[in-house]
Specification:
60% of the residues lie in helices and 0% in strands. It has 110 residues and is an all-alpha fold.
């Protein structure tokens, strides 16, 4: 299944097979980062790797999407495929909005 780019999502353009390359670039970047992480461990064990990776990836994902949506949380939630309340919970957990729901200066305002 093709996933539309942000620009296609905004314009209503259908997804094309060319978008799969974007996913490959992201996957390759994650793979490279993990390879570097394991190299720095130098044989030492690691724990909770899944939680570590999800936390490292989720914050910039949320910040980037929110910025692309001009701080509109409803639009960002739709783009991410999340419920708006779930998005707000994640934004608070990552310090992207305050407890009262206002932005912290990183583009998270609505």
């Amino acid at each position: 299944m093709d996933v539309p780019s942000f620009e296609q999502e905004q314009s209503g353009e259908p997804a094309s097979s060319g978008n799969l390359a974007s996913g490959c670039v992201l996957a390759e970047s994650v793979r490279n980062a993990l390879d570097q992480y394991f190299e720095t461990l130098d044989g030492q064990s690691s724990h909770d790797l899944y939680a570590l990776v999800m936390n490292e990836v989720e914050r910039p994902l949320l910040a980037c999407v929110l910025e692309r949506c001009n701080g509109n949380q409803s639009r960002a939630a739709a783009l991410l495929g999340l419920n708006r309340a779930t998005l707000r919970k994640k934004l608070r957990a990552h310090g992207l909005i305050s407890e009262n729901g206002h932005g912290n200066g990183n583009g998270a305002q609505r």
